[in-house]
Amino acid sequence: MLDIQNLTITLNMSGDPVVRDVSLTVNDGEALGLVGESGSGKTVTALTIAGLLPRRAMTATGEILLDGADLLTCSRDALRRHQGRDIGMIFQEPMTSLNPLMRVGKQVEESIRIHTNATKAQRRERALSAMAAAELSDPEAIYDKYPHELSGGMRQRVMIAAAIITDPGLLIADEPTTALDVTIQAQIIALLKRINKEKGISILFISHDLSVVRRLCTRVAVMQDGRIVEQGDVEDTFSNPKDPYTQKLIASIPQRRKRNE
Amino acid sequence: MKKKNYNLIIGTVITALMVSLILVGMIYTPYAPNEIDGMNKMAPPSVQHLLGTDNMGRDIFSRVLAGAGTTLLIAVCVVAIGVAGGLLLGALTGYFGGWPDLILMRVSDVLTAFPSFLLALVVISIAGSGKYKVIWALGILFIPSFSRMIRAEYVRCRDQDYVRSARLMGASHPRIMTAHILPNTMPVLLSTIAIGFNNAVLAEASMSYLGLGVQPPDASLGRMLAESQSYLFGAPWYAISTGVAIVLLILGFSLLGDGLSRRRAVYDA
Predict the structure, then answer these.
(1) Are strands A2-11 and A19-26 parallel, antiparallel or unpaired?
(2) Is B41 inside any structural domain?
(3) How far apart are CA B62 and CA A182, in angstroms?
(4) Mean pLDDT in residue range B84-111
(5) In a domain? residue B240
(6) CB contact, 8 Å: B188 with chain A?
């Protein structure tokens, strides 16, 4: 599905590369977790895959292959065709990732409007079914609402609906649960897991929260200072971390423990 | 606790009142605005002539309506030119940035450094006076201030998550600029437009007062104020009614603009 080879990214305003020699593979239908602390380069990696870093603001070497097509070197038009249709993305902050002055339904169907010639009625129908797939209750009513009328969890579901409406092969989730409270967080993770299993959409899940990654992903890659320090099966990595940084990260997960232990 | 936005309420009321009077004046005035009545020169306000007559016996009420209409029409055209140019330049420079942004903003810095009224005077003295020349001169000189506001809004919006997500959906730049960002600039744009009207009315009145705008015998508030000056003591109602009309127009737009930006501040908070 997604194959990243030796990706190195330097932002033009800073001298040092923020992503160094990263190689990552997301197989078809797989959920890969990318973990690391703030500033480790995970978000820059994700934005680059999504084509959201302006090309003139950075220098990237290596390859980002999406089904064999290199997203770093393809034309802008080709990139735009991949965006939205083959790659969907959800962001950390559901409060700002929806346009406050556009009805929710219009935002969900935006990708279809751009990439297909579907009629208004067809678009509406697909938007409603995507919203149902994102487990929004009463999509008909929500379709005509504005974002400020929805809760954070509902907005994140709207974002997910908008991201999966075109049935993309890859869904990039950049800390989608960080801004949500714990119960909503669990629901969103369960939803992503279902989307991954039932629709076969690969997920690149970016988080600093290892316990969340463990619940959703089958494989995990650990990033530190722009490098991937460890990559492997989630359970293996958790039970037997090899890299000292991974060991520290895992040790930092709060454990349930008896008081007097 | 919610404070009432009196500026917005009063501004809306005054503006609505003035605009509806002007609209009525376009269809019906008690007398033809340019009709001269030699028997009734400088008559004080009466039942026949609500605001009296001027030095040529023309009905001042009719002339104020017609004059305010001309002034407002010029203001509308000026603001329309300013907004159209400002939107185009502001959206492009704010959204794309880069060297065109730098150059255009420095040019507008230079233009802003001079009072726009002075620049309009220069343009008029080169191009000649007249209604349409005033419209173009003022309209073009309004572009920098509008483009500045609009540019700031596009800069603010272009890195918002919802714009990034629209871009990720494959939306083209024109679509992002029009469908996604433009509606979000409306709160700022509306209050800027109201303030723009305020400035345009004032600028037109000043131009015509100096005899550079609307030419006689047509009425315009500034023109009438200039004429009335000579009869300030003989027929004070002439200057007063014209002056009050200008004040009300400007006050209405200014309060409206201020009220709109306060409303925005409440929403942003």
Answers:
(1) antiparallel
(2) no
(3) 70
(4) 89
(5) yes
(6) no
Measured CA to CA, the distance from residue B159 to residue B33 in angstroms comes to: 54
CB-based contact B171 A89, cutoff 8 Å: no
Place B1 in a pLDDT band, splitting at 50, 70 and 90.
very low
For residue A131, give the 3-state DSSP assignment. helix
Specify the number of domains making up chain B.
1
Under 8 Å CB pairs connecting chains A and B tally to: 64
Q: Which residues of B touch A171 (CB under 8 A)?
A: none
- ipTM > 0.85 for the complex: no
Q: Which of A60-64, A76-80, A173-177, A186-190 has the lowest mean pLDDT?
A: A76-80
CA distances from B80 to B68, B141, B143, B188, B207 (A): 18, 12, 10, 16, 19
% of chain A beyond a pLDDT of 90 = 13
Q: What percent of chain B has pLDDT over 90?
A: 13
Return the residue matching tokens 């923020």.
A18
Residue B39 belongs to a domain: no
Query: Does residue B129 surpass a pLDDT of 50?
Result: yes
Question: Could B168 and A52 be called an inter-chain contact, meaning their C-beta atoms sit closer than 8 Å?
Answer: yes
What structural domains does chain A harbor? 1-86+169-253 (3.40.50.300), 95-167 (no CATH)
Residue B86 confidence class, pLDDT cut points 50, 70, 90: very high
pLDDT in tens, B64-79: 888 888 888 889 999 9
Cα B175 to Cα A79, A101, A113: the distances in Å are: 16, 15, 11
CATH number where B112 lies: 1.10.3720.10
Split at pLDDT 50, 70, 90, the class of A261 is low
Interface of B with A in 168-187 (CB under 8 A): 168-172, 175, 179-180, 183-184, 186
Q: Are A52 and A30 in contact (CB under 8 A)?
A: no
- Global pTM reads 0.78
Domain that holds residue B86: 48-268
Question: Would residue B57 count as lying in a domain?
Answer: yes
For residues B197 and B248, the answer to whether their CB atoms sit within 8 Å is no
Mutation for A interface: B161, B163, B180, B184, most A CBs within 10 A: B161
Distance between CA A205 and CA A89 in Å, rounded?
A: 10
